[in-house]
Design a protein that fits this description.
The complex is a heterodimer of chains A (309) and B (307).
Chain A (H helix, E strand, L loop, with lengths): L5 H16 L4 H11 L1 H19 L19 H4 L19 H37 L1 H15 L3 H12 L3 H27 L3 H8 L4 H37 L11 H11 L6 H28 L5
Helix pairs in contact in A: 2-12, 3-5, 3-12, 5-6, 5-8, 5-10, 5-11, 5-12, 6-8, 7-8, 8-10, 9-10, 10-11, 10-12, 11-12
Chain B lengths: L1 H28 L13 H10 L6 H15 L13 H36 L4 H14 L3 H15 L14 H30 L2 H8 L4 H39 L4 H11 L2 H29 L6
Helix pairs in contact in B: 1-11, 4-5, 4-7, 4-9, 4-10, 4-11, 5-7, 6-7, 6-9, 7-9, 8-9, 9-10, 9-11, 10-11
Classes of the chains: A mainly alpha (309), B mainly alpha (307).
Main location (chain B): membrane
Protein name (chain B): Oligopeptide transport system permease protein
Subcellular location (chain B): Cell membrane
Chain lengths: 309, 307
C-alpha cells in the first residue's frame, strides 16, 4: 500500500472547501438565468427608466400638471403642439395644460395602482391560499368555494358600483382593486401549498411541535416566493389595465389628477381635432410599460421555474 | 352528467343571490338616497316618492320584493331617474346591440385565434409562426380602449372608410370597428394558448404513435391533436367572455353603439342605482350561465374528467 500523499489530500480538501464557498442558491441561479434573457433585461432597463421618469420627471417640467397656459388655451390644435420653446415638450391639451407634466402624473398614478394591487394580492392571496391549502379538509373547501364565488362575479361592474356609491376617490380605487386582485393568487398559492405540505421538512417541523401558523409563515411561504414573484409581476400590468379601463370611462381617477386611462380617454376624444400628441404620448408610455412588464414576467417565470418550459 | 349539472347549479344560484343581496346592500349604504338632488326636495314629496318605490320598507323586505320581482316576472323595477321607464325597457333597448357585436367578436376571436395558434404550432419556426407570436405579443398591450381610438384614427380619420361611431342593424359598416376593437386582445390570447398547447400535444406520445402507424398528417392533427389541444382554450373561454362583456362598456361609450354598456355608465354617472343593479345582475347571470356551459363542454370533451 502506498502512503496517502498529504499534499494531494490537502489539495483536494482545499478544492472542496472552495467549491463549497461557490455553492449556488436557487435565487442566484435564477438571477443568472434572468440576466441571460436579453428581452427581459431590456424590458427591465426600460421599466427602470419609466419609474425614474415617474419619480423625477416633474423636476424637468416647466409647467405643473394642473396649471393652464392661457397662451394656448382653446387653440391646442394650432398652438399646443409639442415644442421646446414654450416648455410643453409633449404639447398641451385643449385647456392649455401641459401634457408632459400630466403624463408624468398619470405614470405615477398608474404605476402606483399596479403596485398596490399586486402588493395586496401578494400579501392577502399568499396568506389566504397557504392557510387554506395547509389546513385542508372542510376549511379548505369552504375557503376555496368562497374564492370561486367571488371570481364568478363580474368584478368590473361591482368595482364601478363601489366607486359610484362611495365616491370616485383614489383610495376607493385602491381598495376596490385590492379586493379583487388576490383571488387568482390565492388559488395558485393553494395549489402549490398542497404539493409542499406533504414534504419531509414540513413533516419534521410538525413532528417537533411547531405551531401551524409558524409552519405556514416560516416554511411554506418562503418556498412559494418564486411562484408568487412571477405571478405578482404579471399581475401589475393587469391591475394597470383595470385602472385604465375604469379611468377611460371617466369613473376612476378624477380631475385634476390623472392616469394613463384618463389621458388616453381625453386624447381619444380630441384626436379628431388634430391634437394627436394628446393621445400619442400617454398611449406610448402605456404600451411600452405593459410590454416591459409582460416581458419581465415571462423572463422571471423562465428564470424561477425551469421546469415550466 | 345530469348530477354534475345539478351540483353546478346548486353553486350558481346562491352566487347570483349573493350578488343581488350584495349590490342591494351597497346601494343602501350609499350616502344620499336616489332622490338626493342639488335642489332640496320637500320632505313630504320625498316621503311620497320613497313610499312609491317601496323605499320606506325595512331592508329585508325590499330585498325580498326585488328578488321576487325578478323571479316572478323577470322585473328589475323602475328606473329612479327616468320615472317613465323601467329598468327592463332600458336594458331591452341596448341588449340586442351588445349581443350582436359581442357574439360576432367572440366568434371572430375564437375562430381566428384557434386557427392562427394551431397553424403557428404546426409550422413551428416558420414565418407564419413568427407572425402569430408577434401578433399575440403585440395585441397584449392593445386592450379595447386602446384599439378603439387607433382604429378610428386609421379607418375613419385617415382613410375615411368606416363611420366613426353609431349603430345600424342593417349596415355592417357600423359593426366592423366595434367587433375588431373588442375581439383583438382575446384573439391574441387564444392564439397564444392554442399555440403552446398544440406544441405540447404534438410532441406527446399518442401523436408519435399516430404518426408511426402511418396516418396522414392531416388526419393526425384533426383527429388526434385538435381535441386535447383545445382543452386549455375552452377553460379560457369563461374568463374571456366575462371580460368581453365588460369591454362592451368601452365599445358602447366610444363608438356610441347604444348597447347596455352605455346605460350602465350613464346610470353610474346619474346615480341611477336601479339600472346599475339591473345591468350588474344581468351580466352576473350571463357570466355564471356561461361558465356553467364551458364547464359542461370541458367535461364532455375531456375523457379524464369524471363528474
Amino acid at each position: 500500500m502506498t502512503m496517502i500523499e498529504h499534499d494531494k489530500i490537502k489539495g483536494l480538501s482545499d478544492r472542496m472547501a472552495a467549491e463549497e464557498v461557490r455553492g449556488r442558491s436557487p435565487w442566484a441561479d435564477a438571477r443568472k438565468r434572468f440576466m441571460k434573457n436579453r428581452a427581459a433585461m431590456v424590458a427591465l432597463i426600460v421599466l427602470v427608466l419609466i419609474v425614474i421618469f415617474a419619480i423625477f420627471g416633474l423636476a424637468f417640467a416647466e409647467w405643473d400638471y394642473e396649471s393652464i397656459d392661457f397662451m394656448v388655451m382653446g387653440s391646442a390644435a394650432t398652438q399646443g403642439m409639442p415644442s421646446l420653446e414654450n416648455g410643453h415638450y409633449f404639447g398641451t391639451d385643449d385647456l392649455g395644460r401641459d401634457i408632459y407634466a400630466r403624463t408624468v402624473m398619470g405614470t405615477r398614478i398608474s404605476l402606483m395602482v399596479g403596485t398596490v394591487g399586486a402588493l395586496v394580492a401578494v400579501i392577502v392571496g399568499t396568506l389566504y391560499g397557504a392557510t387554506s391549502g395547509y389546513i385542508g379538509g372542510r376549511t379548505d373547501q369552504v375557503m376555496m368555494r368562497l374564492v370561486d364565488i367571488l371570481l364568478s362575479i363580474p368584478y368590473m361592474f361591482v368595482l364601478i358600483l363601489l366607486l359610484v356609491i362611495f365616491g370616485r376617490r383614489l383610495e376607493m380605487l385602491f381598495l376596490g382593486i385590492g379586493l379583487i386582485s388576490w383571488l387568482e393568487m390565492s388559488r395558485i398559492v393553494r395549489g402549490q401549498t398542497l404539493t409542499l405540505k406533504n414534504r419531509e421538512f414540513i413533516e419534521a417541523a410538525r413532528a417537533t411541535g411547531v405551531p401551524g401558523w409558524k409552519i405556514i409563515l416560516r416554511h411554506i411561504v418562503p418556498n412559494l416566493l418564486g411562484v408568487v414573484a412571477v405571478y405578482a409581476t404579471l399581475l401589475v400590468p393587469l391591475m394597470i389595465l383595470t385602472e385604465s379601463f375604469i379611468s377611460f370611462l371617466g369613473l376612476g381617477v378624477q380631475e385634476p389628477l390623472t392616469s394613463w386611462g384618463a389621458l388616453i380617454s381625453e386624447g381619444a376624444g380630441t384626436m379628431r381635432y388634430g391634437t394627436i400628441w394628446q393621445l400619442g404620448f400617454p398611449l406610448g408610455f402605456f404600451c411600452v410599460t405593459l410590454f416591459a412588464l409582460f416581458f419581465i414576467g415571462d423572463g422571471l417565470r423562465d428564470a424561477l421555474d425551469p421546469k415550466d418550459r | 352528467m345530469f348530477g354534475y349539472i345539478l351540483r353546478r347549479l346548486a353553486v350558481a344560484i346562491p352566487t347570483l343571490l349573493l350578488l343581488i343581496v350584495f349590490s342591494f346592500i351597497l346601494m343602501h349604504a350609499a350616502p344620499g338616497g336616489p332622490f338626493t338632488r342639488d335642489r332640496e326636495i320637500p320632505a313630504q314629496v320625498l316621503a311620497n316618492l320613497e313610499a312609491k318605490y317601496g323605499l320606506d320598507d325595512p331592508l329585508w323586505k325590499q330585498i325580498l320584493d326585488y328578488v321576487w320581482g325578478i323571479i316572478r316576472h323577470f322585473d328589475f323595477g323602475p328606473s329612479f331617474v327616468y320615472p317613465d321607464r323601467s329598468v327592463n325597457e332600458i336594458i331591452a333597448a341596448g341588449f340586442p346591440v351588445t349581443l350582436t357585436y359581442g357574439l360576432l367578436s367572440f366568434v371572430l376571436a375564437v375562430g381566428v385565434g384557434v386557427a392562427l395558434g394551431a397553424a403557428a404550432a404546426i409550422r413551428q419556426n416558420s414565418w407564419l409562426d413568427y407572425l402569430a407570436v408577434g401578433i399575440s405579443i403585440g395585441a397584449q398591450v392593445l386592450p379595447n380602449f386602446v384599439m378603439a381610438p387607433i382604429l378610428v384614427l386609421l379607418f375613419t380619420l385617415t382613410l375615411g372608410w368606416l363611420p366613426g361611431g353609431g349603430w345600424s342593424f342593417n349596415n355592417p359598416d357600423y359593426w366592423i370597428m366595434p367587433v375588431i376593437a373588442l375581439g383583438t386582445s382575446y384573439m391574441a390570447s387564444i392564439a397564444r394558448i392554442t399555440r403552446s398547447s398544440m406544441l405540447e400535444v404534438l410532441s406527446s406520445n399518442h401523436i408519435r404513435t399516430a404518426r408511426a402507424k402511418g396516418l396522414p398528417e392531416r388526419r393526425v392533427i384533426w383527429k388526434h391533436a385538435m381535441k386535447p389541444a383545445l382543452l386549455p382554450v375552452i377553460s379560457y373561454l369563461g374568463p374571456a367572455f366575462v371580460s368581453m362583456i365588460t369591454g362592451s362598456v368601452v365599445i358602447d361609450m366610444y363608438f356610441s353603439t347604444g348597447g347596455i354598456g352605455k346605460s350602465f355608465v350613464d346610470s353610474a354617472l346619474n346615480r341611477d342605482y336601479a339600472v346599475m343593479m339591473g345591468v350588474t345582475i344581468l351580466v352576473g347571470a350571463l357570466t355564471i350561465l356561461f361558465s356553467l356551459v364551458v364547464d359542461i363542454m370541458y367535461a364532455w370533451i375531456d375523457p379524464k374528467i369524471r363528474y
